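All the exercises in this workshop are built on plain-text protein records. A record pairs a protein's sequence with a compact description of its fold. Backbone structure tokens are a discrete shorthand for how the chain folds in space. Once this layout is familiar, the rest of the handout is easier to follow. As an example, a complete record with its sequence and its structure tokens follows.
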Amino acid sequence: MILALEGVPLVIVSIIAFILILGIIIVIHEGGHFFFARRAGILCHEFSIGMGPAIYKKKFKETTFCIRAIPIGGYVSMAGEEVTSELVKVGNQVGLNILDGKVSEIVIEETMEAMVKGEIVDLDLYGQDGNPLFIEINDGFQNHYYEVLNDAYYVFKKGDKLQITPYDRSFESKSLWQRFLTLFAGPFMNFILAIFIYLIVSFASGMPNYESRVIGSVSQANSNLVVEENGNTDYLLKAGDEITEVNGVKINSWNDLSQELDKLLETNTTRVNLVILRDSETKTVSFDCYTYIASLGLSNIEAPIKELPNGLANGLVVGNLALRYLDDGNKGQYPLAYGDVITKVRVDKVNADKTVDTGKVVELTTWNQMIEIFKNTDVANVYFEYYSSSKNGIVSIEECAALQTYGNEVLDNQRIEKIQIKIGISPATHFDFFGSIGNAFTNFWSDFTLIFRTLALLIAPSSGIRQVGVSDLSSFVGIFDLVKTFISSGFLPLLAFAAMLSVNIGVMNLLPIPALDGGRIVFLGYELITKKKPSKRVENIINNVFFILLMILFVYVTFNDIMRMIRK
């Protein structure tokens, strides 16, 4: 099922889905902070979704709920989180509005009307020692002492107010446990959301019935399954077919089928012969499986069925691509494209000391050769000779922009098979209550640990060859591009992607980096160990410095994402 609205362009649907997915994840994250902050009695000035200028504001009780123009990020502004300069101090001219003998509003804007006006002589609007809040002003004749309500407001201009922050309503006044829960609740709610979504996906899709040998669905990815008869398109395999034999071996379950398909990789072949049972009738079908060289991002998945161009006796028609080009002066050029025909390849081995061993040029006639070449290839630079559909001519190996394979360390770390030989079929599913629950938690744990495995590659690759760097990270632009891809796959894959994104955001926020939730929790750990609160001014400076560094990283990653989209 493709997730789309009839008559609505894919990009519009993608934008809507992108905003909804990020919006829900952010609301859940910030909602966790907000709930535990309010439960601890912390004053929350603002609950904001998005960044930039506000496009909608609504005050409810003490908190202003706000939607901002840029649909990324969000925050809960809690009283006492940061060190800020005093809004009013001795010597300032202010106005006071009085309610039942106590100050209800401190008017900072001098041009606004107020019941009492004067210069501040003394004040305490924090009350850390349990003393009542007060402000003393001189109206030009004498001093006047007023108590201040705990929920009084600063008034900046008409309609622009900020509630004052007594010590007992501030973040820093709460116990270590309350502050920890308030900080941890955001990422924790992201984890809860992810598990909830994975439960929905598991129960909706059902569990694969590996004890059966019945086909549940057939993908359109393997164009070799497509047959044209009398102008009509049909498929060699269909949902409901029962596979009884693979390459002459009888099978009794889907697990048996998988074992036989694994043997294709051992023999470097893609040809498969199946005996199927359809409507009580036995049929024999033969075809080539599709091949995905995952280490390179090269495949014949959904490759167009067409005759080779004139002058080409042999060649491999290219399908879907996710190639990784080297920055060798050709950065930004993505010449090899869908539908092109590869005729030759040269694989240059990259050694641990970064030296390169130049390989031999191999003429290609079958995908079996590609399997044999790349099955035992680790990190390598790859050059192709190919027929370019856009140029209507041959691009030589010398002209080809260099590609590089992902090495074994990266692939094993990410749990990716180097070479994938697939038919394009899935087993029938069945309802399994406990199996679906277990599958949801398995998916969650896989996503949770994936981030740490990726960070290990990013920080300290054991092979000595760094293949994952900052340039491989994605910002909201990259996320939007992925949303477009998953929308084309269907609603359930899009939901699973949203769950993975929620886990990512939760884990990233727990990293021990100042300015993130995890960094602030580290400061709580320091307080727990030393029994002393860290200097708020020092903590604020560290957080601000790292926030600026994170913003620089964000801009850099966003720029790379935009360039990747332009290259496509």
